[in-house]
Prior knowledge:
Layout: H1 2-15, H2 17-45, E1 57-66, E2 69-73, H3 80-87, E3 91-98, E4 101-103, E5 106-107, E6 110-111, E7 115-120, H4 124-127, E8 132-134, E9 146-150, H5 151-158, E10 175-178, E11 181-189, E12 202-205, H6 210-214, E13 224-230, H7 240-258, H8 263-268, E14 274-279, H9 283-287, H10 291-318, H11 320-332, H12 337-374, H13 387-412, H14 416-420, H15 427-463, E15 473-476, H16 485-493, E16 498-504, E17 515-520, E18 527-534, H17 537-541, E19 546-549, E20 561-565, H18 566-572, E21 581-584, E22 589-596, E23 611-615, E24 623-628, H19 633-647, E25 656-657, H20 658-663, H21 667-701, H22 703-711, H23 716-750, H24 762-788, H25 791-796
Parallel strand pairs: 7-12, 9-11, 18-23, 20-22
Antiparallel strand pairs: 1-2, 1-13, 1-14, 3-13, 4-7, 5-6, 8-11, 9-12, 10-11, 15-24, 15-25, 16-24, 17-18, 17-21, 19-22, 20-23, 21-22
Helix pairs in contact: 1-12, 2-10, 2-12, 2-21, 10-13, 10-15, 10-21, 12-13, 15-21, 15-23, 15-24, 16-19, 21-24, 23-24
Amino acid sequence: MLKNYLKIAYRNLLKQKFYALINILGLAVGMASALFITLYVLDELRYDAFHEHADRMYRVRHKFVAGEREFDMEDVAPAFVQGVHEMIPKIEKSIRMEYPNPYIYKKGDEILEEQVTIRSDPNFFSFFGFRLLAGDPETLLSAPHSIVLTQKVADAYFGLPEHHDYSKHPALGKALTSEGEAFTVTGIAENPPGHSHLDFDIIMSNISAERVEQLHDYWLPAGFLAYVVLQEGIHPESLKSDFLAMEKKFEWPVMQQRLAVPLATLEAQQDELGHYLLPITDIHLVSEGNMKYVYILSVIGMFMLLIACINYMNLATARSTRRAKEVGIRKALGTTRKQLVGQFMSESILMALLSMLLALGLTEILHRPFSSLSGKELSLNILQEPWWILILLFLTLFIGIIAGLYPSFYLSVFKPVEVLKGKIIQSSKSRFRNGLVVFQFCISAILIICVILVYQQLLYMQSKDVGFNKENVLLIPNAYSLKNKEVFRQTLLQNVKIEEVSFSSTAPGDHFDAFTTYHTLGSETKHQAKWLGTDAAFFDVFDLQLLEGKNIKADTLGMKEVLLNESAARQLGVQQVTGSTIETFWGEKYNVAGIVEDFNFEHLRLDIMPLLIIQNTGGWPYYVSVRIKSGNIQQTLSQIETIWWKHNQDAPFTYSFLDRKFNELFQKEQRLGVIGATFTGITIFIACIGLLGLVAYIAEQRTKEIGIRKVLGASVKGVVILLSGSFMRLILLAFFLAIPLAYWLMQQWLSDFAYRISVEAWPFLLAVVSLLLIILLTVSFQSVKAALANPVDSLRNE
């Protein structure tokens, strides 16, 4: 029976080549797109699942209050892990580390590229599931000044081991120096997998680290991360009371003393504040905000498959009159309804199988462009992951059944007597088919509107006046490695193409993680602000706007000075801010030289925070910011590099341009826009080829009618309007349904941005016009072909 079903299905495919091609192409493109989206989503969902105790592993987050603000951050106190050991036995093991940071290393006199380094407690490799190629995970970081290199770093700078035996790698036991300290290589780790939120090149022991020792008993956030593994059966919510007891004993006294947080405030908000746990598998998706994009792409993938299935259902029901006599004869000869359903379902599954084979070919051909588009290395490795075969078979059967379900049951209910007499009622079928067309293009319209608004928001962020001049500013990292910063500055300023040079702890578009409290002398109220240390030239390099007062002075004689942004000045709540003296968290006093206009130094998702621009020419500045003149940029860069190497033998010369670096903040939005536009185009393509087949079949059905109309004087234009008018009405209905849905979706997405566009009417009108033009071209292709046909031929072939 099955063999007979497949034979008939094959014959029908050959008989209706055009419609078979449209169905197979539509399903194949939809399947290939869905496979790419599935690969992307599965890679996102795999983040950090490779750790041995991933189901019980958590990162600690911390809610606390300082000044007028509440903070929810991953930053914990250096003493937190010690407190956990003393007071919370429900935690099986824990680890403390500093944030990943770029370090400069030297191998003898050779300067290595910047290496992302994590300074960690010694149990890093016994805690996490990162694989070691050489070294004992229990002891390799237990000695002071020990480091573990990743495979790529070890191979790049020490060569490959003989016979690929990493236990005998030439890097082991060798020394690398950083910031004047020598570190011994005690192990080699496999490169961290791409689906880990922790990315590193080197792991460094924090034992004997000066900063760690100084902050050993410190109970305020200070740039440390903490992870814990709970004992079997322990729910993270059950630790709330344990954390609260620890906070009352260690943290609350420090918050009252150093941050001036009243005890009454801490007691009143004890249920909302404090430490809590985030599953490690949620860090990438939830904490870093990627889950929303997983949902968006998953929905797009499902709709693409659904639209491809709708194409098949539309064409199958539209062509029902051609199969009606077949059904009638079969029923008259004794074929049961169950057998007819089996016949039509086998045709649908065969179509899905052919489409899947074509989709696999498209996936293999296009996986590199999609990997580039998504920023991930994605491919369908069926040989290495054979479970994909089961998924593909299930997907093929599922799509075949979904696509063929309605046509099979619809065709199988025809009554043989009525069919053989030529009586087939079409109205209910047409309404259903029209509903599917409306659904298809409603989804297409929503996608077009959303893509236009995403790009509009992206352009708004890139072109918004952020309050400083981004153009022609060069950022050179590792400024702390310069032996004499002032001589370097003056040497650069001798170049006529260089206008100003500044040293600072950070720069707009980079990390602003440094917080402090501040208050005017004599005031008990402490306020919270971000800060950066810099010099007087910072004001001119970034072309800030002074609202009152003056710039900080160039020298450091007497009391140091500070510039406040508007938000910081407003927060003080005093009439005369300029000229007053403020005191920071560290007890240092600064004279307020002036107030600058608020500027967006972080992502436009965020409101502008209060900011202190502190005069601090000493210390460890990270950036040299250089304002250069337009014209012959490459020559200027070459001259700056020459000067750098004359004054610096400890760090490589690397640079970035501020405008590009600032635009990199919007990479996630850019990627969403590109991926969204790509799959929107594919969705419209699938819908349109289905519409093309539908119009072609309707034109074929109405060949005699068109011939009669032309004989009676109908014009080509009239025939085109006749065939396309009903579809245009359906598309307009789809838009009326799409507009409120698209508006609601985009309002939800835009709510994440502190600075966002207002949703206007023109994106909706543009989407309407563009989709109508695409559909008009699609429909007109077949309509004009039918209208230009010789009516004599259509009437002769009756």
